[in-house]
Amino acid sequence: MSQTITSLLNKTKIDPSWSFSDKTRKDTAYITHGYHRYPAKFIPQIVSRLAEKYTRIGDFIVDPFGGCGTTLVESKVMGRPSVGVDINPVAVLITKAKITPIDPKKIEKAFN
Predict the structure, then answer these.
(1) What is the rounded average pLDDT of the residues 27-38?
(2) Do the beta carbons of residue 44 and residue 70 sit within 8 Å?
(3) Measured between alpha carbons, how far is 84 from 101 in angstroms, rounded to an integer?
(4) Residue 1's pLDDT band (boundaries 50, 70, 90)?
(5) Which residues constitute the domain of residue 54?
(6) How many domains does the chain have?
(7) Whole-model pTM?
(8) CB 3.0-4.6 Å disulfide test: which of 2, 23, 59, 102 passes with 55?
């Protein structure tokens, strides 16, 4: 590594709050986030913090590597329209399951 890069890295302040080390699996599996395991799945708190910091309600969020839909779920919760794509058809299916609302009346009817 060049001396300039090393110098910059040494001066960079690390914000430990981005480690989310206080979060448990239960904390990260709310809403539909706990439906399944997925490789390289990141915790929803990262998305919500980034969206809170860099967007406003109504801003459009795009996730070009959508994975299992964490960004789309958090966007929906935060009142931001979103679109995501992924090359993996399994990821797309999981995302659709996570973000498609079910009419409570249909659930009640099926239950009864």
Answers:
(1) 86
(2) yes
(3) 17
(4) low
(5) 19-111
(6) 1
(7) 0.79
(8) 59
